[in-house]
Amino acid sequence: MDAKVIASAGQPVLKLQDISKNFGGITAIENFSLEVYPGEIVALVGDNGAGKSTLIKIISGVHAPSAGTITIEGQSVTMSSATMARSHGIEVVYQDLALADQQTVYMNMFLGREPVTRLGLLDRRKMIADTEKLVKELDVRIPSAHATIRDLSGGQRQGVAIARATHWANKLILLDEPTAALGVAETAKVEEIVQSLKQRNIGVLMISHSLDQVFRLSDRICVLRRGKQIGVRRTAETSKNEIIAMITGLQEH
Ligand SMILES: Nc1ncnc2c1ncn2[C@@H]1O[C@H](COP(=O)(O)OP(=O)(O)O)[C@@H](O)[C@H]1O
Ligand SMILES: [Mg+2]
User: Fold this and answer.
1) CA 153, CA 150: separation in Å to the nearest integer?
2) Is 94 inside a domain boundary?
């Protein structure tokens, strides 16, 4: 059966209804609604300042919405913190990477969720073993689980952030420009990992400036302009020209 048919069947993993966000006098998001289904990749596109990152931060509990509701698998939730979003199976890879630079790769994999031994000590052995397994599975090329984050390249850091998100997420992954700083080979690797999330039935909401990437990866594309949702298209049924026209607000001739 067509994967896209499956993707829009059943209950959405994420449902946003009439979300608005004001920062003082600035309206960053206005009456935004969108659904993301399990195993579906939805791309969020728009010009700088359109409100994309703000939207991701609302879903992940960093910002409280000024109005509107967030529903996770049919249950209305208040995302009052990033910890709460994580407890709902939502993981984020932010544009400005949130890794602890002075810490090792394995500590970063478990930041805030470290396993402990029966004596209440950090279970480093488990953290290292799990990290090595994951890094191998995802083919993230890092020197070792013991490497310090500040010694890694941009691509390797992004690999760690994505490995962490895919390890902990069980419903939804939010990606804010995950390949903006990466080279060609590293980008291909990240795209492969994002596609593999479909098999785990995880929903993906992904911000990207690369329309080539958006068309390679996404099932649907949502366009945001000055905080407003301009429209959602099935990727297979639209074109780059249509999406560009929606992003810029300029009509095609
Ligand atoms: N913490 C904040 N305080 C005040 N204004 C903000 C804050 N975060 C974002 N904004 C404003 O909200 C708008 C949308 O920003 P953002 O979500 O970062 O856009 P995008 O990610 O699409 O480039 C911009 O006008 C930005 O200046
Ligand atoms: Mg942004």
Assistant:
1) 8
2) no
